[in-house]
Amino acid sequence: MEELIYLDSAATSWPKPDSVYKYMIDFYRDCGVNPGRSGFDKAIEAGNIIEDLRKRLTRFFGGDEATPERLCFSYNATDALNLIVQGMVASGDHVVSTNLEHNSVIRPINHKVRDEGVEATYVPFNGQGFVEPDEIKKAIKPNTKLVIVNHGSNVIGTVQPVAEIGAICKEMGIPFAIDASQTAGKIPINMQEMNIDVLAFTGHKSMMGSTGIGGLCVRKHLDIRQTRSGGTGVRSAYPYHLEDYPYRMEFGTTNMVGVASLWAAQNWIKEQGGVEVIHEHEMKLAQRLVDGLKQIDGVVLYCCDDLENHISTVTINVESLEAGDVGIMLDVDHNVATRTGLHCAPLVHKQLGLVERHGGVRFGIGYFNTEEHIDAAIRGVAEIAEQAKTMKKVNHQPSSH
To answer: Using alpha carbons only, what angle is made at residue 223 by residues 219 and 226, rounded to the nearest 5 degrees?
Structure first.
């Protein structure tokens, strides 16, 4: 069977490093017990890996190393972003976000607007796909309680100037949050230097971990209101959910397979030379893809004239074809896996004018892709574009009757 050319790493990285697979299985076989609930050796060992991973990820994100307990685990980035929005915005407040956001930010905010009387402003991006910091500043009001920005777009791949936005928020005394779903593991992030107050991440994309694990890193000067309650494994007689971190943001048993995957993946990222090396490899492939696609008549690319401050995500359309049809043709005829549609980010597509044609075709390049994969994708798009031109000519031929 012909090898699948997987270009959907913006959805999830696949395959994972072999060392991650092996450690997940070995750890869960050997130590798959409930951490922090008992005093026997295996439970202590399981708890220790959680606490060690908190420290490692706090360093990884440039958080406050003296307070690693503020690295809190969740199901995924969507879960973490809900904790942030639900815990930081209330009736009468105003939140600033952008047209680049994923539904994991848009929908929680919109529920707050509809159900609780919160105000929201979504700042558009410019023609190159970037949100201008001054536009964020202009959107801030006296009752603004949160600015939340997508660090890297899952549609057009642009990486936002979060350090500049963070400096504005710090100056104005507004908490600043970022959605690092697409950038964590690709782009170096230092929360202290970038003035980021809280960061949400997922484990299964460029962090190279499994699905079902993510989290948030909260700076020591910020407290997020609790919106859930449940078991913590400690102080069980206390009638309310604990306010101390990490329990303040964690509920129930931790996903230990996910923890193990991220612990092993941190080793793997280090062995590759760090996120900078991974990013450089992926961007070389992204440039090759863009250069090739630009040569194909009938292909439209979005916000990638210059790939500086980008991640390796490229979205296109083929003229006269639906995005979904192009994706099917790439899959069936060329064995290339992409993602089509609105990518859970409708405001991006709305601003680009793509909602009516049901979005675009997204190529998500990952670390395990090769130049051969990219060249095969370019050839596939070229054939599809040529077919589209032929079909268009046939459909426009005058009738002989």
So the answer is: 130
